[in-house]
Structures are given as structure tokens and as C-alpha cells.
TrEMBL record:
InterPro entries: CLIC_N, Glutathione-S-Trfase_C_sf, Thioredoxin-like_sf. This is Putative chloride intracellular channel 6-like protein. PANTHER family: CHLORIDE INTRACELLULAR CHANNEL CLIC (PTHR43920:SF5), CHLORIDE INTRACELLULAR CHANNEL, ISOFORM A (PTHR43920). The keyword Protein biosynthesis does not apply. GO terms for cellular component: apical plasma membrane; cytoplasm. It is found in: Membrane. Keywords: Membrane, Transmembrane, Transmembrane helix. It comes from Anopheles braziliensis.
Amino acid sequence: MSEENQDNGASRNGSAVPEIELIIKASTIDGRRKGACLFCQEYFMDLYLLAELKTISLKVTTVCMQKPPPDFRTNFEATHPPILIDNGLAILENDKIERHIMKSVPGGYNLFVQDKEVATLIENLYSKLKLMLVKKDESKNNALLVHLKKINDHLATRGTRFLTGDTMCCFDCELMPRLQHIRVAGKYFVDFDIPKHLTALWRYMYHMYQLDAFTQSCPADQDIINHYKLQQAKGDIKMLKMKKHEELETPTFTTSIPVDLNDQ
């Protein structure tokens, strides 16, 4: 297992700041760096924001699920990350992790804004990406485009930096990792690009790319791509064999913005 602290000044010495550990899936390429699990990144972002506010101290541990270490198997058996550990209590299911952050982690309730419009707006976006990658036809591309346009129009109408206002909330931590998968995997597998004319969406992504909560939690492009390669292989041993150059390749992170937002 690989560990990194995201304390952000939240000292535990002589203070009551609790340490929260988040166990996330490691890269399927090198088994050490951050993997491309959407829920892992979502909760990583939630907790990173709280660590920045110094309400918690955050420890992030990556686990290679292809070869999990003995102590992980002993403690968690076949459970897959994300796993949240708070004062010795392990929370194993996604909905329970979310509820625990909201109700039990100091400051967590501030992240969970109640906004039914936004909740409905971002719902099922990821399923449209998966359908596009599987079906690879124009209708699935169009369905994703329509959904992205709705998000763009919402952002343009509200005129705020983020989905519900000028400060981040749980919905942003849910949406942005999915947008990154759409951008990276969509381009690689089906040459899909988020249209440049969706300027409100691009402005939103620009703001997200400036935040440590996103950049520190974001998997490499190669890991996002390999995540879907493994899904498409479906047990095909030949396809699952890792090419040597993929293991040695320097990780890259797509964070450029293809439009001049100053002209908008």
C-alpha cells in the first residue's frame, strides 16, 4: 500500500483535529499512484476540501487490487475501495461513506448542499459516457452532447463559478471527475470532444483545474484510459497483458482549455 498525507496545515499535535484515512484504488498500470475510480476521487475531493479548512487531517492510501497486501485482505477481505477509516471505524459502502462525511466528519455538512435541480442535472451523465464507449454510434454521442449542453446552460444561467454558487459542494466533487473521464476516455476511444461553444462548461472546468482538491486527486490520463481498456477486455487475457511502454510512460494530465475564455 502506498500512503500520502494531505494535511494542508491541519496539525494533530495538541489539537482536536481528527485524522481521516481514505483508502483508494491504485493505478492498474503501476499499482502505486492514484487509480481511475470515480468514487475514490469524489470522496478524496470532499475530504481534501475539509483538510484545507483544517477541520480534519487527511491520510490517503492507495491499494493495488490486483495484488492487495495481506493486511488489507485480513481487514477488509474482498471489499474494494473506497474505504473510509475514522477513529478506527471502517466505512465500506459508498452511500455510507457519503452519509458519514455529511453527518460525522467535522465540517462535512457544509459540503452537502440541498439542490434538487442540480442533483437531477448531473444524474446519469456517466451512464451516457459508458453507453457511448460501448455502442460507438452517433445517437449515443448525441445523448451525451445534449446532457453536457444542459449542464452548460445551467452554469450560464446561474453565472456562478460552481454548480450551486461560488464555493464548491458535493455536486462539484461528483461532476468534475466524470467530466474528466468524458474528456480523456471519450477522446481516446471514440474521438469525442466536448464542444468548444459550451463556454460556460469550459469556464467551470477551468476553475476546477485551478483547485488542489481536483489536481491532487486526479488520476493520470493513462490510468483513465486503462480503466476502460480493462472493462472492454472482459477477461481476454491477451488484451489484459500490459504493454511495457504503458508501464514506463510518464503520466500525463489533461488540464488545458481549448477556448479563450477572455473573449467570452
